[in-house]
Design goal:
- It comes from Amycolatopsis iheyensis.
- GO terms for molecular function: UDP-glycosyltransferase activity.
- InterPro entries: Glycosyltransferase_28, UDP_glucos_trans.
- It is a single chain.
- This protein has 389 residues and is α/β, with parallel strands linked by helices.
- It folds into 2 domains: 214 residues, Rossmann fold (3-Layer(aba) Sandwich), CATH 3.40.50.2000; 154 residues, Rossmann fold (3-Layer(aba) Sandwich).
- The chain is built from 13 helices and 13 strands.
- The strands form 2 sheets. A 7-stranded parallel beta sheet has the order 3-2-1-4-5-6-7, with helices on both faces. It has a 6-stranded parallel beta sheet with strand order 10-9-8-11-12-13, with helices on both faces.
- The model has no long low-confidence stretch (mean pLDDT 91).
Length: 389
């Protein structure tokens, strides 16, 4: 059996797909370890997960909610990705030394994973938890692409002794992309991208939920802006809650920041929700177009209303609309009336549900965690075949 080391950033949406793949590998008898934020990993991958703790950037600045476009991209790289890689590098190196992986699986935003794996001559695979990078968002911005390249080169010098040349976001050994063509569209992909569909595994959860509140005779919509948009989302969540005052549907709103006050009686507000089980009981989802939420929704054949905020979300929202599986709102202009109209449209127009079910069928056929694990096993076999005893 082989040993696999998963290197992930401290972001729920990036850990969850990897956790599904890791669980599949463990079920097949392989050894799995993690390098990342230990508390988050024990929460999402399970309390028995073998975790090598990695540092976080000291005093990391909070991203201003108004940042968009090039300014948001600059912040992402200069103030998050590169400092995170510097902070994680010692822990990743220690994990490689102690665990001795045959294959490293490095998230696209955990740059230290790919850089150190390549520097040590280990086969490594990129985990692309969002499809945004796959469609080359910097294609029309050559100067920005050059600037990003210089940041990566400097980072490689600092943490990997200048060894290696591959882009840490796109391993030459393979990229696991948790989507399919039915959602991604016809964009030209980098080499060795494996479209495996969503990797949905069982997730440890201590979230209580009043399941009896749901009414099977009335449609229910899940409203969520993910875990990283609390500051930016207060006004949007308030508008969403108000929108349901005039709708026959019900809403379950995830409000981790506790920003909502009084809401209509057909709206349930919870700080956390058991998203995967809940998706089997709702009729549509209103969200920020985060890749994981979108894919989990479409896996269940449910239509979407998407209101992208920043980063990859506009790209993912455009994919949803192009697939015919949802309606897009402008986040900053999504008042109660616009939200109500969009929700009513996806609930009453059957074409959205049919398109979502088409994407769902492609997701199920792609294989998800099992397909991803198969690709990783093959790479491990190739690696072990070259080991001299």
């Amino acid at each position: 059996m082989a040993r696999f080391l998963f290197v992930v950033p401290p972001l729920v949406g990036h850990v969850n797909p990897a956790a599904g793949v890791a669980a599949e590998l463990a079920a097949r008898g392989h050894e799995v370890a993690w390098a990342g934020h230990e508390e988050l990993l024990w929460q999402l991958a399970g309390p028995d997960a073998l975790v090598f703790s990695c540092g976080l950037p000291p005093g990391a600045p909070a991203r201003p909610p108004e940042l968009k476009g090039p300014a948001a991209l600059r912040f992402l790289w200069q103030d998050f990705l590169v400092p995170l890689a510097d902070a994680m590098a010692p822990g990743v190196g220690a994990a490689i030394d102690a665990f001795g992986p045959h294959v490293v699986v490095a998230d696209q935003q955990a740059l230290a994973g790919g850089l150190l794996a390549e520097a040590r001559g280990l086969p490594w695979v990129t985990s692309a938890s969002t499809s945004a990078e796959l469609v080359d968002p910097l294609a029309g911005m050559p100067k920005v692409a050059e600037w990003v390249g210089s940041l990566v080169a400097d980072l490689r010098t600092r943490i990997a002794g200048g060894r290696g040349s591959a882009d840490p976001r796109f391993s030459p050994h393979g990229v696991l992309a948790f989507t399919t063509r039915e959602l991604l569209g016809a964009a030209t992909l980098p080499p060795r991208v494996r479209l495996v569909g969503p990797a949905l595994g069982s997730r440890p959860s201590t979230t209580d939920f009043p399941w009896e509140w749901l009414d099977p005779l009335r449609p229910t919509v899940l409203v969520s802006l993910g875990t990283a948009n609390t500051e930016a989302g207060a006004g949007f969540l308030a508008a969403a809650a108000a929108a349901f005052a005039g709708l026959p549907a019900r809403a379950v709103i995830a409000d981790p920041g506790g920003v909502l006050g009084d809401v209509p009686p057909n709206v349930l507000v919870r700080p956390q929700v058991p998203q995967l089980p809940l998706l089997t009981r709702v009729d549509a989802v209103l969200c920020h177009a985060g890749h994981n939420t979108v894919c989990e929704t479409l896996w269940h054949g449910l239509p979407l209303v998407v209101a992208p905020i920043r980063d990859d979300q506009p790209i993912v929202a455009a994919q949803v609309v192009a697939a015919g599986a949802g309606v897009r709102l402008r986040f900053g202009r999504a008042d109660a009336g616009r939200v109500a109209a969009a929700v009513e449209e996806v609930l009453t127009e059957p074409s959205y549900r049919r398109a979502a079910e088409t994407v769902a069928a492609s997701f199920h056929a792609a294989g998800g965690s099992a397909a991803a694990a198969g690709h990783l096993e093959q790479l491990a076999l190739e690696s072990l075949a070259h080991v001299k005893f």
